């Protein structure tokens, strides 16, 4: 339960993920908006999500150490630990996709990637908590 | 968009609770480590939103984080998979 609460703090942070809007087309300049000038909330969300994921990884490392009670331990090589490792891969892939989408200026892809990261982080939280 | 001050206050509350509760469970080192991580997260969050108008700063931060978190994730997965 305590671990669950701690991980909830990390996922609480990612709960603020918003995709931000694209810039408006400027008919006076007849130029499309520069993608790198937009999606500020998405940039903040990705940075915060990476930081939150670091907290989760730190927590996993602590739970993988000897002496942690069996109910919450992430015993290296165990089925539970390997499942958590698989979820780690999925979170990282989603965050990398969000970063790439921001670089490309694709608001739709940013939203999809952040939603995916948030969903997998919740799965990860539950897997670590033994739910 | 959610109120960032409320978000930080909520996280701080959890961090202080964790710091107080976990040592009581006998996991002192783990408790300090986890609470420390969350408190570090709060600092980073404050810095992130404090510099929210600085797009280039955020871009540098997210690219640097992608590199460092990827390395940390690879190391942690190696530990978890037992190889």
How is this structure best summarized?
By secondary structure, chain A is mainly alpha-helical. Chain A has four helices and no strands.
Tell me about this structure.
The complex is a heterodimer of chains A (131) and B (83). Chain A is mainly α and 131 residues long. Chain A has helices at 2-14, 40-63, 79-104, 107-129. Chain B is mostly helical. In chain B, 82% of the residues lie in helices and 0% in strands. Chain B contains three helices and no strands. Chains A and B meet through helix 1, helix 2 and helix 3 of A and helix 1, helix 2 and helix 3 of B.
Oligomeric description of these chains: heterodimer
- Beta-strand content of chain A: under 5%
Radius of gyration of chain B, CA atoms, in whole angstroms: 16 Å
Distance between the termini of chain A: 10 Å
The fraction of residues assigned to DSSP E strands of chain B is under 5%
* Share in helix of chain A: 55-70%
How many helix segments of chain B? 3
What are the key terms here?
heterodimer; A: 131 residues; mainly alpha; 66% helix; 0% strand; elongated; B: 83 residues; 3 helices; 82% helix; flat
Structural topology:
The complex is a heterodimer of chains A (131) and B (83).
Chain A: H1 2-14, H2 40-63, H3 79-104, H4 107-129
Helix pairs in contact in A: 1-2, 1-4, 2-3, 2-4, 3-4
Chain B: H1 4-21, H2 28-50, H3 55-81
Helix pairs in contact in B: 1-2
């Amino acid at each position: 339960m305590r671990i669950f609460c701690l991980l909830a703090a990390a996922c609480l942070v990612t709960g603020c993920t918003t995709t931000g809007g694209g810039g408006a087309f400027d008919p006076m300049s007849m130029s499309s908006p520069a993608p790198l000038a937009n999606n500020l909330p998405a940039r903040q969300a990705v940075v915060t999500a990476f930081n939150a994921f670091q907290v989760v990884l730190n927590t996993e490392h602590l739970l993988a150490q000897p002496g942690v009670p069996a109910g919450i331990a992430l015993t290296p090589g165990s089925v539970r630990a390997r499942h958590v490792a698989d979820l780690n891969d999925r979170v990282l892939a989603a965050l990398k996709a969000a970063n790439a989408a921001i670089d490309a200026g694709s608001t739709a892809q940013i939203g999809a990637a952040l939603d995916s990261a948030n969903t997998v982080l919740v799965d990860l939280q539950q897997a670590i908590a033994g739910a | 968009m959610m109120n960032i001050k409320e978000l930080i206050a909520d996280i701080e509350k959890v961090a202080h609770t964790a710091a107080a509760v976990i040592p009581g469970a006998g996991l002192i080192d783990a408790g300090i480590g986890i609470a420390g991580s969350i408190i570090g997260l709060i600092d980073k969050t404050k810095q992130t939103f404090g510099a929210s108008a600085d797009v280039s700063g955020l871009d540098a931060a997210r690219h640097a984080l992608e590199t460092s978190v990827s390395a940390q994730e690879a190391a942690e997965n190696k530990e978890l998979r037992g190889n």
